[in-house]
Input
Amino acid sequence: MLRFGLFGAGRIGRVHADSVTAHPQARLVAVHDPMQASAEDLAGRHDARVATDAEAIIAAGDIDAVVIGSPTPTHVDLMTRAVRAGKAVLCEKPIDLDLARVDACWQDLEDDGGTIMIGFNRRFDPSFADVKARVDAGEIGALEQLTIVSRDPAPAPEGYISSSGGIFRDMTIHDFDLARFLLGDIVEVQAMGANLIEPYIERVGDHDSAMVLMRAAGGALCQITNSRRCSYGYDQRIEAFGSVATLTVGNLTPTAVRRQDARGTEQAPPYLEFFLERYTPAYRAELDHFVTSVLRGTAPSPGFADGREALALADAADESLRAGRAVRLDG
Amino acid sequence: MLRFGLFGAGRIGRVHADSVTAHPQARLVAVHDPMQASAEDLAGRHDARVATDAEAIIAAGDIDAVVIGSPTPTHVDLMTRAVRAGKAVLCEKPIDLDLARVDACWQDLEDDGGTIMIGFNRRFDPSFADVKARVDAGEIGALEQLTIVSRDPAPAPEGYISSSGGIFRDMTIHDFDLARFLLGDIVEVQAMGANLIEPYIERVGDHDSAMVLMRAAGGALCQITNSRRCSYGYDQRIEAFGSVATLTVGNLTPTAVRRQDARGTEQAPPYLEFFLERYTPAYRAELDHFVTSVLRGTAPSPGFADGREALALADAADESLRAGRAVRLDG
Amino acid sequence: MLRFGLFGAGRIGRVHADSVTAHPQARLVAVHDPMQASAEDLAGRHDARVATDAEAIIAAGDIDAVVIGSPTPTHVDLMTRAVRAGKAVLCEKPIDLDLARVDACWQDLEDDGGTIMIGFNRRFDPSFADVKARVDAGEIGALEQLTIVSRDPAPAPEGYISSSGGIFRDMTIHDFDLARFLLGDIVEVQAMGANLIEPYIERVGDHDSAMVLMRAAGGALCQITNSRRCSYGYDQRIEAFGSVATLTVGNLTPTAVRRQDARGTEQAPPYLEFFLERYTPAYRAELDHFVTSVLRGTAPSPGFADGREALALADAADESLRAGRAVRLDG
Amino acid sequence: MLRFGLFGAGRIGRVHADSVTAHPQARLVAVHDPMQASAEDLAGRHDARVATDAEAIIAAGDIDAVVIGSPTPTHVDLMTRAVRAGKAVLCEKPIDLDLARVDACWQDLEDDGGTIMIGFNRRFDPSFADVKARVDAGEIGALEQLTIVSRDPAPAPEGYISSSGGIFRDMTIHDFDLARFLLGDIVEVQAMGANLIEPYIERVGDHDSAMVLMRAAGGALCQITNSRRCSYGYDQRIEAFGSVATLTVGNLTPTAVRRQDARGTEQAPPYLEFFLERYTPAYRAELDHFVTSVLRGTAPSPGFADGREALALADAADESLRAGRAVRLDG
Output
């Protein structure tokens, strides 16, 4: 049995709380959130206690592991303290928006030998995980061209966007990790951005639409398409084009109902609305991997280095977009 | 080169005229239709002459083969005369609406050794023909359950319905032939009909909706679904359920465009409107089979007996529907 | 909070136990099964007690409702006793294999005013339920032709088949209920059966393949296709053909991965294996409907009469198949 | 009636000859090809004469229009001479591999006011044309992101590749034109190439795999994916992502047959093999547009300038790939 403390009682915190409670070998012990009411509500629904400050979780003797689902700026501090207190850590992405700070954190923690997993949930989506397993098993021959499409149903509000670190660090970071998951190290990045949707996104210096090209160390090419708005719901697809076969993952619909009429045929319903709906099974599988790894004493994956590399790719994309040239990464 | 005379310058006559002209080894020589203007128009567009009466085609020395696309009541007479005149015959379905008359015709012609092909166009649809070839090759193991869906986009007018011989002889007859094409001889028929669409169809004693169950001599089961009206276009599908695999044929769309929006996803356009659009390649392949068979001196298929059997099944379905019981056919 | 006793710790009993435990307003209190070890194992995993005989559940003061997941011959007795003891009942289908016994049970219970729900899980499948809601809302106009396909992945063993009551009472009964769910009362039945798969099924006097035609009181037609074996998994589809639109429900795949290679394109994985996988969400929704209804004091649906009617349709299909004629039901 | 001369009796010449003959208002009069035997064979099958040199077509009084389907290096010369001789010209892409030569040709011809159409066949594919019409009609709102996938089934031989001008001028040029067709002018290009398939492609200094990002003058983004080899056939897809809806065009299969078995479900056949099969209707529609335009005295499209711009984009992609930076085009 793994006993959990949870930082953050917001949307993503609630997802993790549900996963912990549903897991037969995990239990939620305490919740902390500066919004006391949120913490109380969430703790109440899970028979957990409210921790009035972070230290009440860090120092608790009856807590083995923490989930960090609080705002990004708190991640490095909480992760560092939790590792030093001997707790296993499952931290939401990104580790931080500043690569230098991430590297400093790593230098700090390296000698502690702690257990850190970064919450790149898509690796645990049953379809994406199936593609990974089949690619690794050699089913498609050499993976030559990877295509990732990731579009949100609607843009986040200005307040969120302005502190998000920009589209590459906030949104594309999931795609950078998915690319590394399937292709390994990336050595070259080119990016293009545009402002087509909401004026406030341009006002805060960000882009609402982006396309990225990447080259993997093994030679394969990859492209990513992002948009902050998609008329037909959350658009999450990949295509792994191989030398002897190709695997694709399409979007998911809430039911298997199709409609035919004078206007059209084979009409499926809109896709699952957003990440909470689309990735429900992924969040469960992610937590299961974390729990199982910790209980067995093996290293969970993706780890700290994966979180670091995804951020480095976001930085590279940003630089490419601004400089109008390809950016090479040190292999 | 096979030189053709054509009876009937209506909708189906024009389809056959196009097929003849497009075929490198066929040529349209003469057209006859009681509607002189139609005959002239069609003949004009194909550099053919107008035959002022049927005999002008039957007796013509420069005509090797005839296509009978005139109204059903004329089929037996024209077929008989053409065969006796030594011409190969491609006759539209059905041979006649009266089984006794069909059998009498057969007795008449048996000794003449003529070449007769019945125009069951669906056997030549590339998808249905592919299913047939793969079933014959053993790809699905034993064919155990055959499902045929056939729905027209909109009911024919009262005048057509009232002289059509009823839904089984007019519409289902294609499905009866398709069932025999894939399953061989049929030994038992059960049928149910309903009037759900147009009052005039009931008024003339016909049904606008029907479902039929059949058992093949080899043991397999078959079901047919018909409707005289279909909101999304011409609905023509089959499913060949086998012991180790199943082959299905879905409907065809005019383009490969799909639409996604807030109302739905993967929205295809309405299906191809009706038989002229859906079976264009089938009509071409049908004529090619006829021409090739005649030029090679082999028997084209489906032949007279196939036309006779499909009509016998229509009679059996009619009897089953009226008597409310299964009707067995003499194997 | 609704406190449950469970009869039957077999495959379906375990499904219901999981649903009860997962429901926030339900709790599993006791389990009874003549196989003591099964009862202990299941009770242990749900923090419930083992009831050494049925009466220990019937008479228990801390139990409000029972789920009857024991073998069919026990249903009537357990249902009767539970209702008389004031407990709400969720009983697996079929109520019994003998219509006379079902009617006698009903006469017995009528005056008790008990709460009985029959476990026709498919009504609660999100896709089928969505079709029902949209049909009821008038979205497709008049429902004119209903097609139901239901095929098991592999035949049950001889022991199961021989005491199953035959394919219509054991397997098609779900389809009969689904037909009534969407079409209302059925007034005419025609059936055809075949033995194509396993000799032992014929040996015990049953069929492994069946097709059924039905007419609804409102005039619509319905067809059902069944097979005890399906090479590509559990085949569960419907088509609700309406006057202005048609809704279909296709099969479900475990992932959204598709494969393209030299052998073929758009290749989806085999469908979800069997009812436990296909109808997981349906079982949860079924229990939720039962719990909510009981707690609110409303009648859950489908009720006893629905269980009775589905069995009457199975009897009619049996009679039609044996007599080779249409069987009419008293509306 | 438009009377045609044809330069080139190879694969693409034969396609155009078929289109001319099938067109009711066009007739093939003469064919020229340095391979006399090819010219004779093709002319023979179309009742046309063989022109022993190009001039015999250029100077012929009974020829109104020419199709230039000879090797690329001959295009500029033949086009120039034909225009000066007053003949309408349908010239295969590309005009030439050297942009300077194209511009010089244009300067030469500008004052002649001739009729020139460039054979970008994809604009006439029924699905792509439908997308164009619907985008122009405002159906998807603003077109924000265009995705084009174009992969050949197998790489051309070394001899072809070495004189092809490279993947961007030979293969991507179709995609550049398609992008311009849907998005209008392009202002920025980034490209990445790789050698993953055949060593001889790298040996001659070309790439076998490529990805391109582009920005349109209106702000939209576009990406192109190319490969010289595709295991599942000719891969030709587009996605037009708009602000209120998205239209996609998938690949085409030769039949509508799908297979289900223990290995997988919904298995479609491999896609249509290559451009001759995939774009048959497009070639017919292309010729029809040319014939209709010339007979009506209107300018056919795409014209010379479109051929020039597609080549300019290929040059820009080449430069971007070599310099590792974004290349801007003068709007």
In short: Chain C has a mean pLDDT of 96. The CA atoms of residues 155 and 228 of chain C lie 5 Å apart. The two ends of chain C are 40 Å apart (CA to CA). The longest helix of chain C spans residues 304-323.
